[in-house]
């Protein structure tokens, strides 16, 4: 007789669901603030959630219109949905909500990961807003820094404009 694993255990849930204990680094994964905030492409395998959980990530902010697959295989990572159309900028309210999720999680010692489909446009835009706020740098400088850390980030003029306008609102 096989018993179902405890719902709080990402490790046990992944073992139960996938039959594997392996973890794999998610596509386009990198830390922007080590131990606090990471960006990535959409996680597509249970092993991607295992990797995030092993690295202290307890919150996943999804910027895509559809939920990431297998997010329910790791109850140790809370999913937050902020649906943004591909190649579009986030609204000021979505930026504020994202930053609040990061602040609240970090205050509890928990890391956050944010993703869109490929981890460039919408993800890069949110990460640049985070840097503008936390590093107290201009929107333009935040865009340059994210593009240095994550080449190809922030794909459209409207996404760039969202970062610059965010900086103007907070300064």
UniProtKB/TrEMBL annotation:
GO molecular function, one term: protein serine/threonine phosphatase activity
Residues annotated as signal peptide: 1-22
Residue stretches making up the Tyrosine specific protein phosphatases domain: 96-161
Any Pfam family: PTP-SAK
Main subcellular location of this protein, as a coarse class: cytoplasm
A GO term from the CC aspect: nucleoplasm
Catalytic activity: O-phospho-L-seryl-[protein] + H2O = L-seryl-[protein] + phosphate; O-phospho-L-threonyl-[protein] + H2O = L-threonyl-[protein] + phosphate
Gene3D superfamilies (alphabetical): Protein tyrosine phosphatase superfamily
InterPro entries xref list: Prot-tyrosine_phosphatase-like, PTP, PTP-SAK, Tyr_Pase_AS, Tyr_Pase_cat, Tyr_Pase_dom, TYR_PHOSPHATASE_DUAL_dom
Location in or out of the cell: Cytoplasm, Cytosol; Nucleus
Domain of life: Eukaryota
UniProt EC number: 3.1.3.16, 3.1.3.48
Segments forming domain Tyrosine-protein phosphatase: 28-171
Alphabetical keyword list: Cytoplasm, Hydrolase, Nucleus, Protein phosphatase, Signal
CDD domains: DUSP23 (cd14504)
Function: Protein phosphatase that mediates dephosphorylation of proteins phosphorylated on Tyr and Ser/Thr residues. In vitro, it can dephosphorylate p44-ERK1 (MAPK3) but not p54 SAPK-beta (MAPK10) in vitro. Able to enhance activation of JNK and p38 (MAPK14).
Family the UniProt entry places it in: Belongs to the protein-tyrosine phosphatase family. Non-receptor class dual specificity subfamily.
Protein name, per record: Dual specificity protein phosphatase 23
Organism of derivation: Podarcis muralis
């Amino acid at each position: 007789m096989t018993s179902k694993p405890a719902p709080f255990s990402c490790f046990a849930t992944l073992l139960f669901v996938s039959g594997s204990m392996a973890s794999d680094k998610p596509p386009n994964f990198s830390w922007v603030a080590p131990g606090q905030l990471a960006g990535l492409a959409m996680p597509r395998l249970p092993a991607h959630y295992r990797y995030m959980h092993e690295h202290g990530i307890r919150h996943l902010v999804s910027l895509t219109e559809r939920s990431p697959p297998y997010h329910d295989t790791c109850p140790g990572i809370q999913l937050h949905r902020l649906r943004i159309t591909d190649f579009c900028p986030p609204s000021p309210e979505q930026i504020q909500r994202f930053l609040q999720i990061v602040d609240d999680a970090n205050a509890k010692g928990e890391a956050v990961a944010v993703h869109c489909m490929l981890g460039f446009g919408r993800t890069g835009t949110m990460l640049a807003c985070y840097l503008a706020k936390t590093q107290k740098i201009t929107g333009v400088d935040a865009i340059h820094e994210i593009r240095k850390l994550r080449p190809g980030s922030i794909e459209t003029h409207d996404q760039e404009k969202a970062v610059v306008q965010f900086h103007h609102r907070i300064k």
